[in-house]
Structure formats: C-alpha cells, structure tokens
Design a protein that fits this description.
Layout lengths: L3 E8 L13 E8 L4 E5 L6 H9 L6 E6 L2 E2 L10 E4 L11 H10 L5 H15 L14 H13 L6 E5 L7 H18 L3 E5 L2 H7 L2 E6 L2 E6 L1 H6 L4 H6 L6 E4 L1 E3 L2 E4 L2 E3 L13 E5 L4 E4 L3 E10 L4 E7 L2 E7 L9 E6 L5 E4 L2 E2 L4 H4 L1
Parallel strand pairs: 3-8, 3-9, 6-7, 7-8
Antiparallel strand pairs: 1-2, 1-4, 4-5, 9-10, 11-15, 12-13, 13-14, 15-21, 16-20, 17-18, 17-20, 18-19, 21-22
Length: 361
C-alpha cells in the first residue's frame, strides 16, 4: 500500500500540443493517502482512463510526476510499480479452477505453497466463493467471474494500489448492488489503497470515501459523497450527481441580488470574488417545494419514482424539477415554487460564487 501523489500532471496524445484543447489531461494535482478508497468519476472522454493508465505505467505523462510514498515512479514500467488492476471484462483463465486463478499471482512471484493456500483461502472466504474453489472458471456466471478477477487483484498483500477500471459495466443490474457491497466490505477488511474508475455515480458514491469528479480533462471537485451532493463546487458536479440533477437557472445581478427574470431569489449567503461572467442559480430538486407563494410556474410532467415524486415545472421558459412527497399536482396546473435559501447558490462561469452564512459569520 502507498500514498499516491500526482504532481502537475498533464498529458496529450499529440506530439507537440499547442493549446489546452489538445491535452487529454489539462493539469492534475492530487494526494491519495495510504489505505484510502477513491473514485474517479466523470462521463466518457473526460480523462479518467488516461489518468488510470498513467498511474499504472501504461502511459508516460507529457508533463508532471507520479510518486508512490514519495518515490518518483513516472518512468517505471508497470511491473516495477507493484500494482494490481481489475478491468471492465474479467481477466481470468477459463481452463483453471477458481483456486488456481486466485493462486496464480502469488505463484508467479515464487511464493511458497503454504503462503499461497493461506492467502487464497482468506480471499475466497471474503468473496464467499469457498464452495467453488475446485470449479473451472469457464463454468462461472459473469458476476462470479468478476469476483474472481477482483480476488486476483486482492490476493497479494504487497501491492501499492488496487485499481478498478469500470469493473461492473458488464454485470447485470440486479447483481451490481451485491458486488458493490462486497467491494466496499473488501476494502474495509484488507485496507488496501483502491482507486475505482467509473461513469456511474451510484458506484462511485457507494464505494469511495473521496470522489474525484472530472470533466474535459480537469478535476472540478474532490470531496466526500455528501459534500458533492450538498455543496457542488461547479454546475457540472451538481448536474452530473443526483437524479434528477441540480436545477440551473439563468440569472442577473442587481445590487448583489440574484434575479431570475423579474423575481429576486434569496441566496445562501454573500457573493465572494468577482461576479463578472455568466451568472446562474443552482438549487437541487430536493430543496424545491410547492407553495402558495413564490416563483410562478406551470407543471409540465409528473413522475412517480417510488420513494418520491418528481414534479417538472416550467418557469419563464426554464425547466425546474421539484422532489416532493404526498399528492402531486396535475400536468398543466399553475403552482408556486419555493427554494430553500441555505441550499440556493450563485455560480459564475460554472463555479460556486456564494459563501454559506455559517462560514461567513
């Protein structure tokens, strides 16, 4: 296990990049502590896999350094970085038994059979596959194959980091929650440094202690799942995390008052920094309520998603979602919307520009 430091990392697939647009990674500075559980989250093409391949040694970055416990490994090949990687598709040997698949990484490094058996049995027990140790891998279900692939990554005790590259993509949806829970349990038991790459917010938020959200080669926010949900640092984070995502309303400023059309909107606190640029109001649907007074709107859609109801409204040509409980209005009804003030924020050019009252006091 190791602390991983990414220092002023940039990467371009062009031989002589001339602008930021030609960089797949624009600049990344990160510290991941020893034994932590981390996720790289973002849409396809945002740079997640590029960053993972740089950490693993499959790519040498155009600029910057990768440090493991302070040691510069930027130019070391993968076999000298002491890492384990679990891929989107299970990497196992179908002709081998489950036992031999789990034992292979240890035998390949010359470990004695007593040690091999001890580690294989320990991992098999954690994965709940002890009863299939003598089964050939070819006969396993897809979720069990991925379990064995995970076990091959965890069986070694000397790895610096275990990296997961969208490992649940090919797993049936009804089995994903089982493997997500199992992976979280495994991290808590083995205490290895783990990095999980995914475009699925549910996977990232249920696995990781810290989530790195990426967009267009940039890190836009690093935080706990609660921090990302409750206080998005960028409108992209608010939109990408949550279902439905954060409402984004165009606004103007008049004497430091946010105006949505001709309606003033109370913000969480004072504006910090310069407000020159594109200004928007962000508020999550969970903090929008239907009321007898407030912002006039018309209901355009009502969706019952089981645990709550999502009411989609139109206000001055802008779509606003509200998450409510109880009896919903009907499509076409005129309603009024209230925003919870301490959860209503101003964003300038996409970035958070208000300070919470508690922090300002």
């Amino acid at each position: 296990m190791a602390k991983i430091t990414l220092s002023t990392l940039r990467h371009s697939y062009y031989p002589n990049p001339k602008s930021d647009s030609e960089y797949a990674l624009k600049e990344v500075d990160l510290d991941w502590t020893d034994g932590g559980a981390y996720a790289l989250l973002g849409p396809s093409g945002c740079g997640k896999s590029t960053l993972l391949n740089i950490i693993s040694g499959l790519l040498v970055p155009s600029e910057g350094k990768i440090l493991f416990d302070g040691k510069d490994v930027t130019h070391l090949p993968p076999d000298q970085r002491n890492i384990a990687q679990v891929f989107q598709f299970p990497v196992i040997y179908d002709t081998m038994t489950v036992y031999d698949n789990l034992a292979f990484p240890l035998r390949n490094r010359g470990r004695d059979e007593d040690t091999v058996r001890e580690r294989v049995m320990a991992i098999a027990e954690m994965l709940e596959v002890t009863d299939m140790l003598n089964t050939r891998a070819a006969g396993l279900s897809p979720d069990n194959k991925q379990k064995i692939s995970m076990g091959r990554g965890l069986v070694r005790e000397d790895v610096n980091v275990v990296m997961f590259d969208e490992p649940l993509t090919v797993i049936d949806p009804h089995l994903k929650w089982k493997l997500r829970s199992k992976l979280k349990e495994l991290h808590q038991r083995v205490k290895a440094t783990m990095i999980y790459v995914t475009h699925d917010q549910t996977e990232a938020l249920t696995f990781a202690d810290q989530v790195v959200v990426m967009q267009l080669g940039e890190v836009v926010q690093i935080g706990t799942p609660v921090e990302l949900f409750e206080r998005p640092a960028h409108t992209f984070v608010g939109h990408f995390i949550g279902s439905p995502g954060m409402n984004i309303l165009p606004c103007t400023l008049q004497n430091s008052v946010a105006m949505f059309g001709d309606q003033p909107v109370a913000l969480e606190g004072p504006i910090h920094g310069s407000a020159n640029g594109t200004t928007e109001i962000g508020v999550r649907p969970e903090f929008v309520s239907l009321s007898t007074a407030g912002l006039p709107a018309t209901v355009t859609k009502v969706s019952d998603v089981g645990r709550h109801i999502v009411v989609e409204c139109n206000a001055q040509g802008t779509k606003i979602n509200a998450v409510i409980e109880g009896t919903p209005p009907a499509k076409g009804d005129a309603v009024h919307l209230q925003f919870r003030q301490d959860q209503t924020r101003l964003y300038v050019d996409g970035w958070l520009a208000t300070t919470a009252q508690e922090a300002a006091a």
